[in-house]
Design a protein that fits this description.
By secondary structure, the chain is of the alpha+beta class. It has helices spanning about 1-20, 155, and strands at about 45-55, 60-70, 70-80, 85-90, 90-95, 135, 140-150, 160-165, 185-190. The chain has one domain (about 45-190): Superoxide dismutase, copper/zinc binding domain (Immunoglobulin-like). A 4-stranded antiparallel sheet has the order 1-2-3-7, with no helix packed on it. It has a 3-stranded antiparallel sheet with strand order 5-8-9, with no helix packed on it. The chain has a two-stranded antiparallel sheet with strand order 4-6. A hairpin with a 2-residue loop joins strand 2 (about 60-70) and strand 3. It is globular.
Amino acid sequence: MIRKALLAALLPLCACATAQTSDDAPIPEAEPMPMLSEMSATVGDVQMSGEVIGMEGEIIGAVSLIQGPHGVIMEVTIEPGGLIPGWHGLHLHEVGDCSDIGVFKRSGGHMGMIEGGHGLMNPVGPESGDVPNIWAAADGSAGYETFSPLFTFDDVADEDGTAMVIHANRDDHITQPIGGAGPRVACAVIQ
């Protein structure tokens, strides 16, 4: 009896919700959110950033990091045409050097490299430079935000700096040494 009474009471509410969502009124477009580097941090404006460089040396996007009390938020935006559509490995590398355009090997290996420890799914790891993959849309653009408790700004701002590197393929988060992510296709010096 109580169930029938509750159902009878809720039925008009469900009908109203359905009537409102079936309306032909256009859905307003969301305002684009500013990059982290454009926003004021609540933890003292502790931020780092860099420009993402593509295979030809052109600027294809930006990266911003903000230090929180328990880790770092990293945001990456890639302009249309910046990447091949699909999944790409993304890592922090031990040297802040992207000057060898098209190969980006001067950025060194992964930050916090552990022999046999690459990968977020690796029981021996992960390395502090391991972060989730980035996905590029059909037009080659990407919008990405992740959080990592694996590193701090002190790690990123060491004497030789740090680079964010995007790879050609998806990282499987376990295969050594880079998860099968393949060649480096984009790079940003983080400062």
